[in-house]
Structure formats: C-alpha cells, structure tokens
Amino acid sequence: MSEIPGSVRVRTDDGNEWRYDSIERASDFYGVNRSDSVAYACEDVVQLVEAIEKVLKRRDLTLQQKSEIAETLSARGVSFEIESKVWIKTN
C-alpha cells in the first residue's frame, strides 16, 4: 500500500478557477467542508456510474428508453453509449 500524503492540493489558478466553484457547490450540496465534499463526490461518482450501468442493462427497457437515459445522465468525463451492449466511456 502506498503512503498516504498529509494533504492534497487542488490547483485553482491558470484556467482552473472553475474547480473552486465546483468544490464550493459540492460543499453546499453535501453540507460539509470542502475536503469532505471532494471525497464524497469522488466516492459518489463511481457508485452513480455503476448504478446507471445497471439500469441501462435492464432488459425491460427499449433501446430508445436506454438511449434517452444515457443522454440525460451523461456528463463531463462520463458518457454512455447504447447499442446491443452497454459501454462506459471516460475521458
């Protein structure tokens, strides 16, 4: 197991100012401090993608329904493509 650092920095300068706003929104959403909100969001995104993949694999949904769900739930860095199988595409 690798050594865990005492702190991790998030750059918010040089075109990365949007990160601070995103962290603030997550902090407001979760009702916790910025550090915890980043950790919560990181954990949640993995669980959400797994849940979406499970939904998109359901056999009782039509291809059109799956496509609409995939389009609605795709976000920056994660998109879902529907064919006869389900793939997750990350940047």
What does this entry look like structurally?
- It is a single chain.
- By secondary structure, this protein is mainly α.
- A hairpin with a 3-residue loop joins strand 1 and strand 2.
- It has helices at residues 17-30, 34-56, 63-73, and strands spanning 78-82, 86-90.
- The protein is elongated.
- The longest helix is centred in the middle third of the chain and has 23 residues, at 34-56.
- The chain contains three helices and two strands.
- Helices cover 53% and strands 11% of the residues.
- The chain has one domain (17-90).
- The chain has a two-stranded antiparallel ribbon.
Summarize the structure.
With 91 residues, this protein is mostly helical. It has helices spanning 17-30, 34-56, 63-73; strands at 78-82, 86-90.
